[in-house]
Amino acid sequence: MDHRLRKNKQFSYLYKKGEKFYTRHLILFKICSKFKNYKIGFSVSKKIGKANVRNKVKRRMKEIVRVNNFAKDYSNYVLMAKEGIENLSFLDLRKEIEEIFNK
């Protein structure tokens, strides 16, 4: 089962209507869904760095969410990276993602 948000329309809806949670390097947008499976999208701005840096940050975020299965309820999420996230180690990023999903 694919648990990814892909369409711009889905991201825009979450940005406008979703509940927001903040940490130093991440913003989590969450909205309840009528469907049984969660969906999650990842957003990394061009302010973060060049394409290889942004892709590395996205790969790390995806792997942390996949392995730890933080998103368990019937909701849609968008994890948005803020500046400075490219300097975090994998373990620090994992701690921050755990923190934001526990809010």
In short:
The protein has 103 residues and is of the alpha+beta class. It is 39% helix and 23% strand. Helix 2 (51-68) packs across helix 3 (90-101).
The description of the largest β-sheet is:
4 strands, mixed
Strand-residue proportion: 15-25%
State the total count of DSSP E strands. Answer: 4
Count of the separate structural domains? 1
First-last Cα distance: 26 Å
How does CATH name the architecture? Answer: 2-Layer Sandwich
Catalogue the unreliable spans.
none
- Calculate the mean pLDDT score and round it: 93
Rg from alpha-carbon coordinates: 13 Å
CATH fold call: Ribosomal Protein S5, domain 2
Structure description:
This protein has 103 residues and is α+β, with helices and mostly antiparallel strands. The protein has one domain: Ribosomal Protein S5, domain 2, CATH 3.30.230.10. The chain is 39% helix and 23% strand. The protein has three helices and four strands. The protein has a four-stranded mixed beta sheet with strand order 1-2-4-3, with helices on both faces. Helix 2 crosses helix 3 (90-101). It starts with 7 loop residues before the first helix and ends with a helix. The model has no long low-confidence stretch (mean pLDDT 93).
